[in-house]
Amino acid sequence: MADQCAQSGKDNRSPIPVIRWEEPPEGPVVVLLDQRRLPAEEAELVCADVPALVDAIRTLAVRGAPLLGIAGAYGVALAAARGVDVGAAAAELAGARPTAVNLAVGVRRALAPYRAALAGGGDRRQAAEAALGAARALHREDAEASARMARHGLALLDDLLPGGAHRVLTHCNTGALVSGGEGTAFAVALEAHRAGRLSRLWVDETRPLLQGARLTAYEAARNGMPYTVLTDNAAGSLFAAGEVDAVLIGADRIAADGSVANKVGSYPLAVLARYHRVPFLVVAPVTTVDATTPDGASIEVEQRAGHEVTEVAVPWTAGAEGGGGIPVTPRGTRAYNPAFDVTPPELVTAIVTEEGVVSPVTTGALAVLCDRSRQV
Length: 376
Ligand code: MRU
Known about the structure:
Its EC number is 5.3.1.23. Belongs to the EIF-2B alpha/beta/delta subunits family. MtnA subfamily. There is one protein chain. The chain has helices at about 50-60, 65-80, 85-95, 100-120, 125-160, 185-195, 210-220, 235-240, 265-275, 305-310, 365-375; strands at about 20, 30-35, 45, 165-170, 200-205, 225-230, 245-250, 255, 260-265, 280-285, 290, 310, 325, 340-345, 350-355, 355-360. By secondary structure, it is of the alpha/beta class. Strand 4, helix 6 (about 185-195) and strand 5 (about 200-205) form a beta-alpha-beta unit. The protein binds 5-S-methyl-1-O-phosphono-5-thio-D-ribulose.
C-alpha cells in the first residue's frame, strides 16, 4: 500500500504543556494549550475564572476524558482561590460536558478536600490550598497511570500479535493532549513505536471536529511515528485489505457492564474489527469506569451543535454558539451530531487500565478491577 504519511522524522520527547496552574500578581489562573487552534498554532488560553474554563471545556479548547478530569479539579481550585461560590462553580464545571465521567470525578476529587478543610475548622485559604493539592495530585497520578497503561497495553498487543510489528488503527485523539502523561490508547502505540514494534499507526480523521487529523497526527509527527491519516469512511476498505492488526481507542465512560462510550465512530470500528477478526482494545484509566452507570443505554451521549457538521472551519475555532465556517450543506440543513457512541462489551476484546487488563469484558471482572484499585 502506498505510504501517504508525512513524517517529521523527529522524536520529540518533551511533554506537551496542555494544562498548568499559575499564580501571577493579578491572581491565580489555569493556562491551557488551546486545542481548537492545533495544528496551525500552539496558542495558550489563560482562564482567570470558572466561566472562562467552562467555555474552554464546552468548545473543546481542553478535551479528552482524563484531561477533562484534571481541568475540572483545577477549576474547583480556581474557584476556591478566587473566593467565589465553590459549590456553584463545581456544579457548572461538572455539567459542562455530560459524557466523560472523568470530568465529574475530577471536580469531586478537589471539592471533597476543600469541604473537609472547612468542616475541620480551616479557613478559606487553607481549604483552597487543599483543593489545589488534590488537583495537582490528580495531575501527577494521571501521568503515572498513563505510563502503566502503555506498558500493559504493549504487553497485550505482543501477546495477541506475536512476533510482529504492529499496524494499529486509532480514532479521535488519546495522547498527551488528553492527559497529564502520554495518554491512553495513543500511549500504547507510542510505547510500541519506542520498542520498534509499530509499523503503522492508522489515524482516523474523526469527523466532524477532526481530532484525529488535527491532533493525533500532530502528536504522531512530533514523536516521529510512522502514521497515515484516513477518512473515517475509508476504514472498511483498510480492514478488507488486511492492513489492520488491532484497533486501539480510549473511552469517555465505561459502564458497569463494560459498555464503552467513546468518540462517535468507535462503534462502527468495533463492528468492522469483529467481522475481520481483529482485536478491538479499549485503553482507559480506572477513573473512566463508572460503577453507577449500569449499562450502555444509561450513558448520556452529548449532542453537539449542527453547524459542526454543516460547516467546515479549519483551524476549528467555532464556539458553542457556532458558525463562522464554510457551509458544506444547503442553508437550513439539519444535522445529526452525537459526540460519542456506545460499543457493547461483547465487541470489546479487552479493556486495558493502569491496574491491569480485563478480558473477556464482564461486569464481574470490571468490578474486581475497580475494587482492587480502591484498595491500592
Ligand atoms: O470530544 P472529545 O474530543 O473530548 O472526545 C475525546 C474522545 O472521545 C477520546 O477518545 C476519549 O476522551 C478518550 S481520551 C483518553
